[in-house]
Amino acid sequence: MAALMMCYATLQLPLKYDSWFEHDLQRPVGSQNDWQRQTTAETQRRGREREVSARSPSSCEDRAPPGSDALFSCLQQALWGKCSASFMGTGVCDRVCGRCSSTLRSRSLSRTLLVSARQAAACTETGADAWVMRAMSNKAEYARAHGMSLTWHATLLDADYDGAWNKVSVLCRLLRHELLHAPRERRSAEWLLWCDWDVIFTDMAFELPLEDYEAAGVQLVLGGDPSGVGGEKADYLKLNSGVMLLRVSNFSLALLERILSIGRPQARRKHALALQRSIKNLCVGCIDDQAVLLHLLREEPTRWAAHTKLERRFLLQVHWEDVIEMLPTAMPAALSAATSAALAATSAEWHPMRSPSAEPLPAMRRPFYGHTRVPLAVHFAGCQLCSGKAAPEKSAKCWPAFRRVVRFAEEQGLRSLGLRHPSQNRSAPESAPLVRLEAPR
Fold it and tell me: Is 255 helix (H, G, I), strand (E, B) or coil?
């Protein structure tokens, strides 16, 4: 199975970087004026693209509904299920209601680089390395489905930044390469989509609304609850850095370098004590990239939080323990012709951020934060699946859930081949031979 899913081509960016950065930079890269000027210029360029696209007969853009309904955006109307309303007829909000494809979104997705990494050493858990590869194959399949490039790392770039810190090092180097070594018109990416290796995409047809973020000047997108950033104390559990969407900009580079500067080995203990006082649900003496990011968003809101989107319109990522009993275990066993009718009564309404041609997914068994649609991704944080550091009772829960979610995600790609996983033993460590989809009845 891993070999089948790994057949898709991936792109590895050339590693032509400067020597590893120094924190006391002689030439600041991420000054506030720099990225503000860049954002303004980019917004103007996007506006010109929209003007040209609107004049093109082959384009399809959203035009706000008339009258008082124009107070709300097309995306809001679509999320509220208003696409079939009389005031949302043809010519109004066509793109977001799935009546066409978005050229702006497609272009932005094709200029996105999906980035992931795993630990450099082999996994200590028996058979874990094979499942790590299937998790990486899941990311390759999601990138392929949306025209993204993909790169992943299995090396420790800097001995001072091991564990979760390594992802910040990886992202920092990629951003430096794009910003300092490639002319703007020749950059290979405009967005970086980071995913921890133990994040599994569960809605393979979901399209990130990049054009909305670009129009709003957003530089960083996270899954999180705004109440966890504000308030008397920030909440470590209300924000997760396992999935991050970063704009290729001086803002993103400055933010990552600031995180690394706080996480220097010599200063970690001091900063850990400071973070403990302002962040609840953070273990005593702990400090990681997520805690530092939460601290910066809270303590320096004008510089960082003002240009960060905590996405709540859809489930960007969820913790596995929160939803594992709600998620569907499998796609329907019948071929697509029969599947659409079978799902019509049980699926949530069509989602404006899914590919219009995609087969609908089964709905979750009950709502989670008001959503019944399958989340974009499920994160197995805390399971330590590769390192084997989790307690035995924790591991005994994590592994069956992880294998079940991986198989559910794989099935979405297998359907185009007329194949699926067997219905039995979805959580088993061994993979049974694939079976054919049932013929329509």
Answer: helix
CA angle centred on 257, ends 31 and 117, rounded to 5°: 135
CA dihedral 267, 271, 272, 277 (to 10 degrees): 160
Q: What is the CA radius of gyration of the chain?
A: 22
What is the block-wise mean pLDDT of the chain (441 residues), using blocks of 10 residues?
Answer: 39 31 33 50 48 39 72 78 78 72 80 94 92 97 95 90 91 93 78 98 95 94 89 88 97 97 89 90 90 94 95 94 95 66 46 75 92 95 92 95 97 90 92 87 59
**Beta bridge mates, 371:** 368
The C-alpha angle 244, 414, 419, rounded to 5 degrees, equals: 160
What is the set of domains in the chain, with CATH numbers? Answer: 2-12+28-44+103-311 (3.90.550), 319-418 (no CATH)
Cα torsion through 50, 56, 60, 64, rounded to 10: 60
Nearest alpha-carbon partner for 139 in 117, 159, 158, 160 = 117
* End-to-end alpha carbon distance in the chain: 28
